[in-house]
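Notes from the 1:1 (GR / supervisor)

We went over the backlog. Supervisor wanted to see one worked example end to end before approving the batch request, so GR pasted a single chain during the call. The sequence is below; no edits were made to it. Supervisor asked that the structure be written out right there so they could see what the output format looks like.
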Amino acid sequence: MKNIIPSFRDSLFSKNTDILIDISEYTIDNLIKSSDTLTDFPIIKTIASVLKGAYNIYDRNLLKNTLVFIQELNSGTIDEEKYIAYKATLEHNPNKCEKELGRVILILNNIIDVSKSKMLARLFKAYINKVLTWEEFCEYSEIVNRIFLEDIELLIKINEGEVTFINEDDKEKYRIHRLNSIGVIDIDWITVAILNGSNKLKQLVTINDVGKKFLEIVLDFDYQNIIRLKDN
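Structure output shown during the call:
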């Protein structure tokens, strides 16, 4: 699929939202059969040309995740001037296009859960809007790639102060350590006074700035607003 990067670029900036809605209702097989008529999204034709010749589970997965990514990217708000500027940059700088869109394609090809494709698209929107640098996008996309979806709920609880310590008898404390391993929370030993007047070392769990921004971007999670509500 040597033309996949140009096809992805051209599909990425299609503004035909009606077709996007229709595409979301297609099965993968129907998309493959209809690829020649979906001219607004050349990425479909590029991947489908391979799939027509053989049943390839990896390319089917890539097609599904790429379309979810494009659909999410074209929903919500991207600053129009930044959108136009980024599109022009990719069109006039093939090396940048290869580097950035190539990385996105590789991540989409490795993603199994569709919801992670949406998260990745939200990160990419933040990059286009200059909320994230390219280096930060790479860092946060790696978090999306590595995080367990069931651990996101725990991250939210840590963020909201519902989980503050690692308890020795907690059967799910391994999940806290998983979040720590991807860099979204911190674990620190602190001394805590207990009822008998003695002290005990406990592991304090707190969300860090990376974790806060992760929630803000990929889950549209307004951390600062929650803090203000709690303060009031």
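Supervisor's comment: The longest strand covers residues 185-193.
Batch request approved.
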